[in-house]
Amino acid sequence: MSKIQLVQFDLDGTLIDSLPQLWQAVNLMLVELGFAQAPKQAVQHWVGNGADKLVERALTDALGHTPSEHEQQTARASFDAAYDSVAKHKVVLYPGVFETLNQLKAAGKTLALVTNKPYRFVPDILASAGLDEYFSHVLGGDSLAQKKPDPAPLLHVCQALNIAPEHSIMVGDSENDVLAAKAAGMRVVGVTYGYNYGRNIADSNPDWVLDNIEGLLDLLK
Ligand SMILES: O=C(O)COP(=O)(O)O
Ligand SMILES: [Mg+2]
To answer: In which pathway does it act (predicted)?
Structure first.
């Protein structure tokens, strides 16, 4: 695996445990709209396809039906304001993240971040986590017309850096990461400690499954 030049990372559920802040923001939104709060596990299962889907899933659960365009827009504005106020609070990195990123950098790998989270939230979260100096490229879920599981963001990063997909690897916690990487012609590592709608990442058949991100260092030797 020494041929790998570029490592593309997912953010939520892979590098940081953002569920506490996402849960809090969803509940601030639900309360503002007059609904009951949602349990943490429900929110965990709604994360993965960006903020619009998170809001739509929470609203569908609260309303008992699919929200109208107007309901969705009102809720999304409420969620954005709430998440703006809490997203960068006490950002918790998973064990081994700094060590792994530092060693990959020291080994000369290029690192990129491809998240489905709307871009506007990402720089502050990275700065708060101490991760703002690591990535040559950072894409949010709304940076391009397509988001994961579409391969477009991963291929965009490869093209921008002039690195072939077979010389890149994706690391993520969700089937969206696995599907995007496979469609991009890239190998993929699934981490077991993230969200993935409460499902086992091994079921999505990533090329490797890791319980701790530090396992990457052995893989990429
Ligand atoms: O915002 C989401 O739904 C998931 O974000 P991620 O792609 O960083 O896991
Ligand atoms: Mg994720």
So the answer is: Organic acid metabolism; glycolate biosynthesis; glycolate from 2-phosphoglycolate: step 1/1
Give the count of domains, the chain: 2
3-class DSSP assignment, residue 187:
strand
Q: Same domain, yes or no, for 42 and 97?
A: no
* Residues in contact with 90: Cβ distance below 8 Å, sequence separation at least 6, in sequence order: 20
**Among 9, 10, 12, 176, which is best to mutate for testing ligand 1, by the most ligand atoms less than 8 A from CB?**
12
Residues 213 and 128 in one domain: yes
Q: Is the CB of 204 under 6 A from ligand 1?
A: no
Q: Are residues 151 and 183 in contact, defined by beta-carbon separation less than 8 angstroms? A: yes
C-beta of residue 174 within 8 angstroms of C-beta of residue 195 = yes
Distance 183 CA to ligand 1 centre (A): 18
Q: Are 171 and 13 in contact (CB under 8 A)?
A: no
pTM of the entire structure?
A: 0.96
Domain that holds residue 42: 19-86
**Would the CB of 4 count as within 6 Å of ligand 1?**
no
CATH number, position 78? 1.10.150.240
Give the residue whose CA is nearest to atom 4 of ligand 1.
48
In 3-state terms, what secondary structure has residue 89? Answer: coil
Could you tell me if 45 and 78 lie in one domain?
yes
Whether 115 is in the pocket of ligand 1, judged by its Cβ within 6 Å, is yes
Same domain, 197 and 149: yes
Q: Which of 65, 86, 107 is the last residue of a domain?
A: 86
Interface predicted TM-score (ipTM): 0.97
Verify whether residue 10 is a known catalytic residue: yes
